């Protein structure tokens, strides 16, 4: 039996009562999780002793500015380049079939050792003319390996093209990358030829 | 024509049995091909070119190529892959991949997933900005720099929602999506239905609620975001690492973002969708293609109208009235108070001095409990619901003629009908998603639409034939059309002979409804009447949709009967695409009556006067039950005035605003000894209460709703009840138990099981069968078989036959000279009914802040009215004050006052207590008033940014031909062929 009214009086929870209620909730939560809380406190104590807490606090306080600065510094071509190259290097490592190369690596090792020996030798170890060298079986074997290498460099890269289409994209960048590797190795090989030419 | 034929796919023969696209065939064969723009709900769009395969040696798009016998289809090959990559590359040129800091990276970004599946690691075409601004409004935003021009949004806007606002301007140097003629979104015709943001495959078109909220890093402020994106791009060696990291981040998000299915709480279409929440914060509403009623469609309310759930105005504690007003109390005090008062009144005045009103917004289970409280605990049949205000006449008309009071079929039937007749329904605004099916069928599939309404609303503008009969005269033209059809011999004789009784008597009764009589009464020309009859005759299937324009009249039941008669005479039942479709307004107005909140019916429409039925319920409930029908809500108001009704318990109903003649109703409230109101907000009705109980809306509880298709769907709890509010079923149970009910339901599924055991109509309904997006349309047999299309096995009436029921015209209320303005009233698209929920959304209120009165040009000129003029309308029952809007949607002395207000402009201060003679539904549409100008100058009630001022740009879909015509376009298949030719 009533006239329309819009007057609504909210329940007066006195501030003390509200606080009591909230404290009780907190208390319950702490007691129920006491082991985790005790362990966390030990951990925090350690961190505090090392001064790390202060560091973290400050970093978080200034996080916006710090983020801007970090992003700014990362955004240098050299930095991004080197991070990118690091990733690429990892990928190239994946592409190399090192297992097949293993026997070759032994041979290269031997080649390098001999190379060093020749370098360090006195003039008594000289071998004679190039023609006499060619009669040496070891030399002939080494030459055929080198030739095979050179032939490989010069071959038309059909197999490679197929693979790239399968992957779906002509990767101009990585092609450049591969080219660079090849040039480097090729150049290194060429550079090492004089070492086989006898110094009189 | 479903002959099987052979095709070869990648060398293997397969047989195909129906016309499909190549893409559909490949999907059924589980062969993966990329696709970006294709969406089953929209069909083939042909803008992305990624689905290219080879058919008979030619490169084609698989989405739009139909299979023919002996086709040879290849999906694997370097050249095919190359073509797909070219297409994908162009797309990446339009979209920056910064997935880890993108709000859309939730596992369902189609660009991200396609890049992953195609193992793309680099793009050849660099992404460049398009030099166009981000378009934004309060609901969603468009970032042109992320837009891949797939055109899904345009397709959806043009061909699914058919609002026709979006297009892609292919002639720009860098094409992008534009609104209207390239207006800002706020000034366009966009209705914010949300289709575009739903179908967008990436983050280009995205809901504002997601921005900065969905990811762990997406909230980073703009300043740091750009350099971070650049950094990531410079470091990335390829997309593999990018995708891996962003996939991890996307998975992490699932820990924080909850995705829950619910059913919309607004209108009777019953859209269902997932709601994404972070705690109580709603990020977005994500419709799903598998949703049975709506698929990917929504309207502004369902997609964006959920602010009310977290509104500060929510009731969170029970209130009890004392001398000074209301005070907040704890539940215990409120329940004790209710128990003592209710017991007193029942003891001193008998059970029939209490009455109960159920809500058409609450769940089926809650409706059942309310009527069980009334009947089993109190001992009265005084229980009703708000379908009394709108749908009872339609239900009555259908009971009389075909036996079931519900839609004959589903929304898909409406979509496939050859002819739609819409009578007294503003479908595009009141049932937006349902209207989209009609608009789409008309635009793309040749469906014909006839609209009969006194007002020129959106569907009327699109109609193939639009007639404006005199208000309340529909029965006359319907009967005249029926008579004409019979006279021409166009009636379906075979159907009538096999399935209908009382045919001859009915034909006799049509005699007075000659064309000339009808023309005189309805003011429609004889040509128009004949045209309607001809169109019905020519269409193989006709569905008639109707709503309040028919039912809210003194002869509403009879008019609904006339509609059903017409359908029977023309054989438009028992087949897909045909039938009667009274469009239910609220999300659960169908269900609330189905589950028994009616004074003369138990759940499933079983009569309370039927002794066998009553005994069954008495046995299960363990009490004796009253055998006399109780009061409906109109009768309740009179009974209060007469002093016979002392207590009223209302849930989820703002009766003090939505009933007619609210001066009368509010006066009744003041006389009650006990008035309990249960609601989510402190509504106008609450102001009169003695006790106010805080309830939970749909997102905070479990239950089911039944939509206009008789489809029962489950809603799942998205978040916990706010404050001390509780789901309505828990409150009713608590009250029942205070009064000795001894109920102990632990979950609504138990309530549903109880209903199923007592109700043959729902015998097979249980929550397992309704899990996820599954649904059931009643009648549901005990084995779970439901009934999408009614009457296929005959009619649930004597002999299995329908009945033709003669009806006579009831003249609408006549008003004397000074009340010369006919006040039409009804709904708006963006506000739901009186706006108790939608006004809590600032975005929606921003576009439509007030109620307004639509006034015709003629009337405006006559009375000196312009936009913003404030007027007073006065009827014999009350008066309202409201601001005017001059428009051609109304004509002559007819005005339109939408119902979206509880203030001084509320329509029901004008309406009378006159009702439908058969069901007591108030005749809201029969009201006239006199008009006085109060203030000539004022601000227009509708701000410029309301969508009604926009200029839509109709076209059929995205117009991909515009893209193909560009000089810089070459089909990837052609490009691959050229390359191969050049390489020799």
Write the layout of secondary structure elements.
The complex is a heterodimer of chains A (200) and B (984).
Chain A: E1 8-9, H1 15-32, H2 34-49, H3 52-61, H4 63-74, H5 77-95, H6 98-120, H7 130-135, H8 137-154, H9 158-167, H10 172-192
Chain B: E1 5-9, E2 12-16, H1 22-28, E3 52-55, E4 58-61, E5 72-74, H2 78-92, H3 110-117, E6 135-136, E7 140-142, H4 152-160, E8 166-168, E9 177-179, H5 195-199, E10 205-207, H6 222-235, H7 239-256, E11 258-263, E12 272-278, E13 281-287, H8 300-304, E14 319-322, E15 325-328, H9 331-349, E16 354-358, H10 364-378, E17 383-385, H11 392-401, H12 411-416, E18 419-423, H13 427-430, H14 432-445, E19 448-452, H15 458-462, E20 465-467, H16 474-487, H17 493-499, E21 500-501, H18 503-509, H19 515-522, H20 526-538, E22 542-546, H21 548-551, H22 556-569, E23 579-582, H23 589-594, H24 611-621, H25 633-641, E24 647-651, H26 655-658, H27 662-669, E25 674-679, E26 691-694, E27 703-706, E28 711-715, H28 728-738, H29 748-758, E29 775-777, E30 802-803, E31 821-826, H30 842-847, E32 853-855, H31 857-863, E33 870-875, E34 878-886, E35 894-898, E36 928-935, H32 961-964, H33 972-982
Parallel strand pairs in B: 1-5, 16-17, 16-24, 18-19, 18-22, 19-20, 21-30, 22-23, 24-25, 25-26, 31-35, 32-34
Antiparallel strand pairs in B: 1-2, 3-4, 3-5, 6-7, 7-10, 8-9, 11-12, 12-13, 14-15, 14-26, 27-28, 28-29, 31-36, 33-34, 33-36
Helix pairs in contact in B: 2-33, 10-28, 10-29, 11-22, 16-19, 16-20, 16-22, 25-27
Can you put this structure into words, describing what you see?
The complex is a heterodimer of chains A (200) and B (984). Chain A is mainly alpha-helical and 200 residues long. Among the domains of chain A are: 18-61, no CATH class; 97-151 and 182-200. Chain A is 76% helix and 1% strand. Chain A is built from ten helices and one strand; from the N terminus they run βαααααααααα. Chain A has helices at 15-32, 34-49, 52-61, 63-74, 77-95, 98-120, 130-135, 137-154, 158-167, 172-192; one strand spanning 8-9. Chain A starts with 7 loop residues before the first strand and ends in an 8-residue tail after the last helix. By secondary structure, chain B is α/β, with parallel strands linked by helices. Chain B has five domains: 1-92, Ubiquitin-like (UB roll) (Roll); 258-310, N-terminal domain of TfIIb, CATH 2.20.25; 319-390 and 588-779, Rossmann fold (3-Layer(aba) Sandwich), CATH 3.40.50; 400-582, Dimethylsulfoxide Reductase, domain 2, CATH 3.40.228; 821-949, Beta Barrel (Barwin-like endoglucanases). The radius of gyration of chain B is 30 Å and the shape is globular.
